[in-house]
From TrEMBL:
Lineage of origin: Bacteria, Bacillati, Bacillota, Clostridia, Eubacteriales
Organism listed in the record: Clostridium facile
Domain of life: Bacteria
UniProt-recorded name of the protein: Polyprenyl synthetase family protein
Family: Belongs to the FPP/GGPP synthase family.
Pfam family, one: polyprenyl_synt
Keyword Transferase included in the entry's annotation: yes
């Protein structure tokens, strides 16, 4: 099967499972169920769950065992995007080409939809033995990894750094630390969850984590580049938001060309880190594809 076919197959698998998972009740609180589904099904790239499934496959695991983990990561990612768009955070009205969750459902419902998705992620992981035959030990390790990477030592911590230095020029060390946590930690969790589902050794979990950190940084630099030269239509969100909020990013520190070069160097490093594994072909191609992405 070609790279593109495998990618499409993973995305379809994740979309189908997410649709099955998402509560669609006609009860009194259905507005929050609707808001959760609206955001999760808004057409994201599904990068993180694809990483989970492929890492599991690459390390000899059963993809089915990793599927609940993959969906949980995407739920947490969606939950973070809902919260990130709120007026008290980045105050963005457009996400994935559609009105942000709080514009479509109101601020309180969006806050609750983000909260509910965050909790539901751990519910689907906790039930992964009954639903997909994932081992109990892997479930416990998976929950530990994901909660750690999403919390104050991960994504939440990165967001706190971001808010703390809003409207300020910051040095590279702070920018690096912010993105390692804000964007990188969830990408690391996605990869490590795949390894955990495959019952990988602690050394392999650490090695795939190192690859994920490099990839996460390259991914964020491309995000910064797209915020300057991207196509608003393709991106599904306004460009120039960092400049408008006077945020320091890779472009302000290294310029457009310098940032492109840095992203290319990190992509090469990530590919080197992948070559430690048997059969990294799919991830090598995915890593290259992310450097050239337009959205
Ligand atoms: C919900 C635990 C929890 C925390 C929320 C608001 C917040 C704390 C964190 C913000 C995290 C954030 C929005 C980081 C940006 C990461 C990033 C580059 C997102 C874009 O990812 P893509 O391009 O998006 O994969 P799609 O839409 O394709 O899924």
């Amino acid at each position: 099967m070609s790279f593109t076919q495998t990618l499409q197959e993973y995305i379809q698998m994740v979309n189908q499972q997410l649709e099955e998972y998402l509560p669609k009740k006609s009860n009194l609180q259905h507005v929050v169920d609707d808001a959760m589904a609206y955001s999760v099904e808004a057409g994201g790239k599904r990068l993180r769950p694809v990483l989970t499934l492929e890492v599991c496959r690459m390390l000899g695991g059963e993809i089915q065992h990793a599927l609940p983990f993959a969906c949980a990561v995407e739920m947490i990612h969606s939950s973070s995007l809902i919260h990130d768009d709120l007026p008290c955070m980045d105050d963005d009205e457009l996400r994935r080409g559609k009105p942000s969750c709080h514009i479509a459902f109101g601020e309180a419902n969006a806050l609750l939809a983000g909260d509910a998705l965050l909790l539901y992620a751990f519910e689907v992981m906790a039930k992964a033995h009954q639903t997909h035959g994932t081992g109990y030990e892997e479930i416990a390790k998976g929950i530990e990894t994901l909660s750690h990477c999403a919390g104050t030592d991960g994504m939440v911590g990165g967001q706190v750094i971001d808010l703390t230095y809003e409207n300020q020029r910051i040095e590279y060390e702070i920018l690096h630390q912010m993105h390692l946590l804000k964007t990188g930690a969830l990408i690391r969790a996605a990869c490590q969850l795949g390894a955990i589902a495959a019952k990988a050794s602690p050394e392999q979990i650490q090695q795939i984590g190192a690859y994920a950190e490099t990839l996460g940084l390259a991914f964020q630099i491309c995000d910064d580049i797209l915020d300057v030269v991207g196509d608003q239509q393709l991106l599904g969100k306004p460009i120039g938001s960092d400049e408008q909020m006077q945020k320091t990013n890779f472009i302000t520190l290294f310029g457009l060309e310098g940032s492109r070069q840095k992203a290319a160097e990190l992509t090469e490093l990530a590919k080197q880190q992948l070559r430690q594994f048997d059969h990294p072909e799919f991830l090598l191609e995915l890593t290259d594809m992310l450097l050239e992405r337009k959205k």
